[in-house]
């Protein structure tokens, strides 16, 4: 059985309808620690709460005591703990929301967690502006004309080629993180081909 969890991180609560609809339609909302305060205020029911509990207030600890999963290890952040919990509980897909905003350093760290987990589970991150998708192999993406697209290459030796993006790449390395940003789709799809990897693809809504 395929199960999809929506993980709510403790950044800015989603405002766009796409991440909000993921929360509204999910039977399995997994909260990162203090994110339960925002989820509770918004009127959503959590399936589980995962983290080190350092930002969970006593009222929430009592109210949701039966679904709290405490992991005290400080070597990983709460988002990593939540994804690992989903893996251990046989989820096949996770959609992460609320992982950006408030702390810029947390946002960057959360985005670059994605490729490591893409080897184990289908994962993407939705913000209030767009979607980050990690990929391990060449891929076609659904799109629309003039959609803003950025390519991030954690491995600066990866050779990347594109089709149907305004600024084409042909077996090109992105040696600096900014070099693949601010591209644009030319139609209802585009393709990214590469050797090595991984890559992280950002598409605006």
TrEMBL record:
Domain Thiamin pyrophosphokinase catalytic: start-end pairs: 22-123
GO biological process: thiamine diphosphate biosynthetic process; thiamine metabolic process
Top EC group: transferase
Keyword field: ATP-binding, Kinase, Nucleotide-binding, Transferase
Domain of life where this protein originates: Bacteria
Matches recorded under InterPro entries: Thi_PPkinase (IPR006282), Thi_PPkinase-like_C (IPR049442), TPK (IPR053149), TPK_catalytic (IPR007371), TPK_catalytic_sf (IPR036759)
A Pfam family assignment: Thi_PPkinase_C
UniProt-recorded Gene Ontology molecular function terms: ATP binding; kinase activity; thiamine diphosphokinase activity
Thiamin pyrophosphokinase-like substrate-binding domain mapped to chain residues: 130-200
This protein's name: Thiamine diphosphokinase
EC number, as in UniProt: 2.7.6.2
């Amino acid at each position: 059985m395929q199960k999809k969890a929506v993980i709510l991180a403790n950044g800015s609560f989603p405002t766009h309808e796409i991440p909000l609809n993921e929360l509204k339609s999910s039977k399995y909302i997994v909260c990162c620690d203090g994110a339960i305060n925002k989820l509770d205020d918004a009127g959503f029911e959590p399936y589980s709460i995962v983290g080190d509990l350092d930002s969970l207030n006593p009222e929430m600890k009592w109210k949701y005591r039966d679904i709290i999963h405490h992991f005290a290890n400080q070597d990983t952040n709460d988002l990593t703990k939540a994804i690992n919990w989903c893996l251990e509980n046989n989820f096949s897909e996770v959609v992460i929301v609320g992982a950006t905003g408030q702390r810029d350093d947390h946002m960057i760290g959360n985005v670059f967690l994605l490729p490591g987990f893409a080897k184990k589970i289908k994962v993407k991150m939705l913000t209030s502006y767009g979607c980050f998708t990690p990929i391990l192999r060449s891929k076609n993406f659904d799109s629309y004309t003039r959609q803003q697209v950025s390519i991030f290459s954690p491995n600066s030796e990866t050779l990347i080629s594109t089709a149907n993006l305004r600024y084409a790449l042909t077996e090109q390395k992105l040696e600096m993180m900014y070099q693949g940003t601010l591209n644009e789709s030319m139609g209802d799809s585009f393709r990214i081909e590469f050797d090595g990897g991984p890559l992280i693809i950002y598409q605006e809504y």
